[in-house]
Each structure stands twice: as C-alpha cells, then as structure tokens.
C-alpha cells in the first residue's frame, strides 16, 4: 500500500521510500567486487540489501537501497555519517559509523559501505527485552541532547516537506501524517484535537539538528560505548527535542512500555529539556503513531490513544 506521507519529490518525480524493490544479489556482489571490495556476503531484508564485505583485511558493513526512493534515504544516511564526523571531530559522547565508500551503482541504486559496528543492539525489536535499555536511559537522553546542540545548517535539509522555517517544515510533515490517516480513524480518536494542539504551539519550537529515527533498536552497546546507526531520516534543519519526543513515543507506543517512556522523559527534564516543546513534539509523534498503526494488518489503537492522553496531561 502506497501512502503520500512516505514520498519524496526529486526532479519533479514522486518517489516512495517505504516500498522495497527486488534486486539481483549476484549482480550487486559483482558490482562491489568491481569497486575493489572482496567477499561480499549479502541478503535482502525489507527495503535494503545488507551484509558485509572486505577490503585490505578489514570487514565492513554494506547497505544497498532497493528502489530509487529508498536510494535517496540511504544517501542521506551516508551524508549524515559524514556531516556528524566533520562537525564533531571525534568529540561526541557516542559513536556513529564511518562511511568508507558510497555512491550509485550502475543500476542507479545507492550503496553505502561503512565501518562495522561491534556489540549488541539495546533491543532487537520486535523482541521486548529492555534489560539493556533501562541502564542506558541517561546515556540515550545525553545522545539526543548532544545532537540537537550541534549547529543548524542546510547540509541535510528535509527531503519531503515544505516550508521556509524549521517550524513550518515540522508542521507540514505532521499535517501530511494527519491527512494520510483514514477519516474514520481521525474522527473516532478526535485526532484533529492533537493537530490543533500542534498548530497552536509549533512556532514555539526551536531549530536544531535531529537523527530522525532515534530508537533503541538503532543503538549498539559495546562495553561502555554506544553507537547510533541508521541516519536515513537525519536533518540539520529540524527542531530541537524531536529525537527526545520520538524516542518517548516509540518506548510508549511501539515497545508498549509507558513506564520506560516516563523514565526517559524524567531524565530529559533533568537534562534541562523544555517540557512544553517536548509535549508539542510528542503530539506530532502521536499523530505519526496513529498513521503507522493504521497501516498494519490488524490495527489496535489502544496504546496510541493512551499515549495521546498521557502527553496532554504530562
């Protein structure tokens, strides 16, 4: 099922970045060998072909898009990796993969070869074991706060929104989510109330970079080090607290751990995050959560309704 909320316009062409394409893995392996890599071991997982390859005795991670729209997002991940390292120059409280090589293959699909991350995911979703998340709550908040403290620039603009300011672009994205939700669901759960909550407050948001898909299943733990991966939705012209609000919604509504979300938000306030801006972001993300659920085979909106009530009174 396609959805206008998940499309990008490039050179006047509308592209979907959620629906995977089918590719020939042997052909891709040959292309990597032609680029100077050795022993590529690949498999297709949903939207990407992923695996490992080698060069000069080092093993690297490989990620290859399976459609033109997904290619734009994978290219963004490579740009995010590069921008993060150029901006922080090693002075960050966590790690981000290093891009080794990237570009377009002859089939016009984007490839990314990056440093291989060691360690364990904080959670291997849909597994719900939170034993690695709980002791890392403070570190996770610190990561998000660090990202939004980096300089705002046009290095990584929004790929699929309209508006002149970061605030306008955030609102534009929220409206697209809202409009993509079936009308019956919008009415049943009074989602216009959430949208009006955002419209009344979005101008109070502050510009700041974001990772954009800030979840514990995109974080590896290796000893005391954390690594943040998968920057496909990163932007250097986002709004502050987006990653914090995104994580809170994911912990609450996806992992179905309201107590964990509450602990995360409590730590965010300890680290001097603005509660009212956080509530606005969470309202945006609540709308996004209803949209995600509406696209599942057997939607159950109860936890999303609970999150909406929570943010209104938090």
How many separate domains? 2
State the shape.
globular
Helical segment tally? 10
Could you tell me the CATH topology label of the largest domain.
Aminoglycoside 3'-phosphotransferase, Chain: A, domain 2
Question: Distance between the terminal alpha carbons, to the nearest Å?
Answer: 35 Å
Helix content: 40-55%
Largest sheet: 5 strands, antiparallel
Q: What is the level-2 CATH architecture name of the largest domain? A: Alpha-Beta Complex
Strands, helices and their partners?
Blueprint: E1 7-10, E2 13-16, H1 25-34, E3 38-45, E4 48-55, E5 58-65, H2 68-88, E6 99-104, E7 110-115, E8 120-121, H3 137-149, H4 166-180, H5 183-188, H6 191-201, E9 219-222, E10 225-228, H7 242-254, H8 258-270, H9 275-294, H10 302-313
Antiparallel strand pairs: 1-2, 3-4, 4-5, 5-7, 6-7, 8-9, 9-10
Description:
Helices cover 43% and strands 17% of the residues. By secondary structure, the protein is an alpha+beta fold. The chain has 2 domains: 4-115, 2-Layer Sandwich (Phosphorylase Kinase, domain 1); 120-313, Alpha-Beta Complex (Aminoglycoside 3'-phosphotransferase, Chain: A, domain 2). The strands form 3 sheets. The protein has a 5-stranded antiparallel sheet, sandwiched between helices. The radius of gyration is 19 Å and the shape is globular.
């Amino acid at each position: 099922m396609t959805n206008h909320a998940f499309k990008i316009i490039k050179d006047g062409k509308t592209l979907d970045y959620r629906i995977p394409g089918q590719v020939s893995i042997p052909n891709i392996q040959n292309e990597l060998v032609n680029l100077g890599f050795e022993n590529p071991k690949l498999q297709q997982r949903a939207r990407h072909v992923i695996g490992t390859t080698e060069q000069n005795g080092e093993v690297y991670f490989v990620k290859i898009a399976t459609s033109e729209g997904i290619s734009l997002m994978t290219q963004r991940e490579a740009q995010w990796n590069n921008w993060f390292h150029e901006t922080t120059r090693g002075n960050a409280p966590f790690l981000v993969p290093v891009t080794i090589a990237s570009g377009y293959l002859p089939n016009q699909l984007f490839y990314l070869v990056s440093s291989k991350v060691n360690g364990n995911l904080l959670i291997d979703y849909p597994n719900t074991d939170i034993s690695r998340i709980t002791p890392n709550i403070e570190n996770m908040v610190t990561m998000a706060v660090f990202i939004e403290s980096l300089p705002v620039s046009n290095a990584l603009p929004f790929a699929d929104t309209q508006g002149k300011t970061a605030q306008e672009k955030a609102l534009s994205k929220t409206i697209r989510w809202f409009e993509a939700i079936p009308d019956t669901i919008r009415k049943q759960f009074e989602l216009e109330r959430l949208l009006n909550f955002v419209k009344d407050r979005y101008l109070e948001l502050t510009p700041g970079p974001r990772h954009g898909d800030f979840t514990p299943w995109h974080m590896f733990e290796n000893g005391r080090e954390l690594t943040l991966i998968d920057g496909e939705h990163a932007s250097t012209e986002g709004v502050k607290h987006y990653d914090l609000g995104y994580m809170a919604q994911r912990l609450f509504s996806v992992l179905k751990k309201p107590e964990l979300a509450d602990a995360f938000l409590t730590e965010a306030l300890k680290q001097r995050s603005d509660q009212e801006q956080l509530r606005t972001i969470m309202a945006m993300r609540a709308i996004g959560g209803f949209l995600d659920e509406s696209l599942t085979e057997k939607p159950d909106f109860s936890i999303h309704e609970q999150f909406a009530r929570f943010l209104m009174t938090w």
